[in-house]
Amino acid sequence: MSIEKTDPKKNEIAFKWFNSYAGVTIKTPTKTLVIDPVDVYAKKFPTIDAILITHEHYDHLDGPLLRNMQERTQCQILADPTSIRKLSPSIPTEKLQEMPPGTEIKIDGTSVRAEICNHPAANTPITFLITSEDQVKIFHTADSLPFPEMKDIGATHKPDIVFCTVGIAPSTSPQTGTEIVKLVQPKVAVPYHTALKEDLIEFCKTLAKEAPKVKCLVAKKGNAYIVGKEQKKK
Q1: How many CB atoms lie within 10 A of CB 142?
Q2: Of 146, 166, 212, 227, which is most buried, counting CB atoms within 10 Å of its CB?
Q3: What is the distance between the alpha carbons of residues 55 and 121, in angstroms, rounded to a whole number?
Q4: Per-residue pLDDT at 1
Q5: Domain span at residue 195?
Q6: pLDDT at position 3
């Protein structure tokens, strides 16, 4: 089932990983957020409340695509400072929201908070902590390597789900993804940002050994999944 036809209920969110990078659609009972869209068609997103951009690299930021998506849906774009500078010539100013770490905005009952990111190859990278109107919490870690403050994020916000980079980005691996989980201690961990099935499998094997209480959910690209009090595939 496509995520457009998926209707998460109270205390649930739906998500879809749609490329080999950090591209994820998050759907709450009332809102749809798209993170780092590249290698997709704008027409695949008929309804968007906000697009979230973590940093300026080609596999996270596609300016012409974002312009097309924004024009079609009139959504807000929330992004790190470097990406905002790149987008400002082509996106209406009132539709752009700069999100340095520590910034938090509300989209009705859903909140989006920018956190720091350990991705030295980018200029001003951020991670995103999303809290649905029912307090389901999602931590999207962009291309981040582990960093000590992740432990504080986990203790303070108690994310239900964390997306962990396990490949492609410099120095990332299934092991660094596992270290993120050990710091954050979510209920569900989803490996992403890799083109290799082996990375996803290795992450789950490593997680089973080092953080056995955390559920590993290997998402098939393009499929919709529900996370909440119960985890089930749609």
Answers
A1: 28
A2: 166
A3: 10
A4: 56
A5: 3-228
A6: 83
